[in-house]
Recover the amino acids of this structure.
């Protein structure tokens, strides 16, 4: 993995000082070496911080120039099929003389031979890069299909001092003297709803995130006029899902299961290629257990696995992970952390995530990354399985819920909603323990309150949108804000032929996965200089899985049916079958206990009034209700607290 950055400027008198400071700001992403390159005639400067994974020699250092000297590349990622591409290039071009064995060099020579678009369609992996073409005098920015690797960009400054900036993280862009950092209030509203700022937006005005599966070409004329042309799509999950659904596999169930297992094995094998020590995160859930089982199947030695455990039973999966690790024979490391140790991460979060980010599982993700980094330089994760195989409870529950909801008049639903919300979440959880069939759900009271909030839904999409929202009306809380259009509303993709569950899976893939989960893992891991890889996000695997009939993903009210069948070939069913827990921490109780004073300081009414971002009444009302135990507003409050903590460090 690595950190990339660069800029275009008409004045390059201090470029060396600036670019190396920008590099230094993201040195955690690549502490092994750094480099810079500039073209004074064009005004282009490229910077790079390297985390050496493939080809540890100096021949893999960046920014790297192609053998023809036409292209200069600063690149972050891994191209898993780069050896295959090398062989293809060698067959078609007799002029290639490789200087080293890095995938960076492979990517450069492929672009030189085939061009950007063909190369992007050929490569398999995770990446973000900036490329300068000396011949056409064009800067290209590109991002991988799913959005595993980040890239920010935008114009800052005024007049002749205007600069175009790009980089892996905002902290690199902020180093440039022309960076203004004007906060985008509309983005705050998005963060309150989704606990992150979704692409293409960022927390700053005029700074954007390149969308997954897109690339952007800035010609010299665009740069001189301070223009940003529209990005182009080279791969679309939406089209993949629709095509797969329209071309379903006609094989028998056992044959599909066998084929899927081969695809999974292939993806895992590709992502196990490394010149440095490699391991895996193991939570004990279906996804990570499947990935680890297939890693161990293809490894000559015990795979190193890592788990973080907590004393609170409702949040602790370490006990399950240990049993699975023992069964598979992995070299397992677990670390139990106290609430105090976990809370010590909180002051670091604003720096790790660069912009307000409030998925509370960011805390254990950082802790398990720190743990893994002690023994390995690369960790493989099981992210993406829920979106691919219909694994989230909301896919199943929302369909059942809507079938009942649509039969009830809206006025009656509003009365029912008020009644359920009048009962505290603790009392609802207590009641569930005595009701057959409900005692299997953890945090039942919170789930009922969430269900009560969506009784106002008028369509299945409304229901889904509400389930995906923390603050239902965030603009009421954020002063002078308007929610920009997102894939949930204004830019909702055309999902013709997909049922409501499949539509949710696509939208989660495009939003929750790329803007929340992958951001969470990338920043937490890279803060520890740890590379992460995600086998479920191999685009060929994704294209295959969307051809699998939906009935093999969801069966008898249970998601991931076919994935469970594969896992049960390696791990006994009794070790994996249990209610889904997620990967969180008890923020609700922490806010009423050890974090109370910290939160009270950040949510102080006078402070909120002086800062002018939030309407104090909306914030204080939720804070008071949470402290009393009447409602559990942990997610809504954590959104605000993470913004407040972030703004505190950026003033």
């Amino acid at each position: 993995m690595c950190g990339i950055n660069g800029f275009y400027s008409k004045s390059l008198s201090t470029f060396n000082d600036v670019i190396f400071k920008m590099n230094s700001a993201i040195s955690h992403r690549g502490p092994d070496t750094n480099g810079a390159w500039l073209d004074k005639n064009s005004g282009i400067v490229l910077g790079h911080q390297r985390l050496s994974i493939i080809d540890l020699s100096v021949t893999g250092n960046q920014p790297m120039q192609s053998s023809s000297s036409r292209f200069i590349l600063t690149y972050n990622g891994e191209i898993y099929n780069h050896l295959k591409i090398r062989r293809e290039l060698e067959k078609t071009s007799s002029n290639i003389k490789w200087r080293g064995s890095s995938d960076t060099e492979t990517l450069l020579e492929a672009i030189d031979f085939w061009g950007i678009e063909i190369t992007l369609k050929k490569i398999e992996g995770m990446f973000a890069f900036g490329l300068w073409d000396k011949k056409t005098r064009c800067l290209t920015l590109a991002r991988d299909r799913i959005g595993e690797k980040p890239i920010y960009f935008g114009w800052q400054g005024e007049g002749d001092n205007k600069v175009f900036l790009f980089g892996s993280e905002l902290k690199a862009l902020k180093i440039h003297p022309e960076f203004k950092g004007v906060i985008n209030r509309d983005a705050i509203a998005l963060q309150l709803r989704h606990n992150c700022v979704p692409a293409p937006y960022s927390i700053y005005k005029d700074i954007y995130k390149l969308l997954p599966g897109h690339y952007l070409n800035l010609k010299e004329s665009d740069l001189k006029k301070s223009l940003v042309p529209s990005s182009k799509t080279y791969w679309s999950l939406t089209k993949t899902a629709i095509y797969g659904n329209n071309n379903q596999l006609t094989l028998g169930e056992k044959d599909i299961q066998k084929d899927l297992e081969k695809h999974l094995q292939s993806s895992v094998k590709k992502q196990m290629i490394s010149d440095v020590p490699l391991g895996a995160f193991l939570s004990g859930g279906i996804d990570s257990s499947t990935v680890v089982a297939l890693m161990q199947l293809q490894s000559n030695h015990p795979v190193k696995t890592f788990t973080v455990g907590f004393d609170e039973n409702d949040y602790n999966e370490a006990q399950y992970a240990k049993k699975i690790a023992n069964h598979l024979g992995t070299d397992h490391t677990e670390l139990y952390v106290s609430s105090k140790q976990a809370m010590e991460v909180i002051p670091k979060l604003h720096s790790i995530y660069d912009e307000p980010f409030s998925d509370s599982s960011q805390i254990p993700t950082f802790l398990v990354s720190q743990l893994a980094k002690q023994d390995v330089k690369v960790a493989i994760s099981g992210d993406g399985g829920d979106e691919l195989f219909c694994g989230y409870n909301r896919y199943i529950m929302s369909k059942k819920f809507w079938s009942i909801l649509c039969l009830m008049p809206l006025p009656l639903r509003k009365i029912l909603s008020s009644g359920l919300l009048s009962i505290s979440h603790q009392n609802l959880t207590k009641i569930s323990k005595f009701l057959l069939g409900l005692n299997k759900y953890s945090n039942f009271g919170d789930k009922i309150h969430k269900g009560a909030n969506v009784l106002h839904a008028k369509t299945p999409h409304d229901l889904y949108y509400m389930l995906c929202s923390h603050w239902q009306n965030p603009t009421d809380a954020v002063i002078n804000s308007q929610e920009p259009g997102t894939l949930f509303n204004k830019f909702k993709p055309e999902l013709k032929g997909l049922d409501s569950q499949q539509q949710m899976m696509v939208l989660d893939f495009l939003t929750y996965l790329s803007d929340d989960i992958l951001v969470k893992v990338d920043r937490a891991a890279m803060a520890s200089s740890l590379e992460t890889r995600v086998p479920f996000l191999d685009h060929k695997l994704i294209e295959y899985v969307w051809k699998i009939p939906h009935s093999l993903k969801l069966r008898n009210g249970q998601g991931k049916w076919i994935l469970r069948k594969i896992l049960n070939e390696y791990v006994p069913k009794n070790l994996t079958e249990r209610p889904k827990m997620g990967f969180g921490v008890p923020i609700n109780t922490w806010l009423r206990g050890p974090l109370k004073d910290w939160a009270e300081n950040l949510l102080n009414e006078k402070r909120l009034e002086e800062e002018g971002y939030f309407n104090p009444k909306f914030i204080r009302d939720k804070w008071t209700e949470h402290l009393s135990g009447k409602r559990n507003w942990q997610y809504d409050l954590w959104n605000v607290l993470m913004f407040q903590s972030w703004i505190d460090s950026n003033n």
Notes: The longest strand covers residues 71-79. The mean pLDDT is 91.
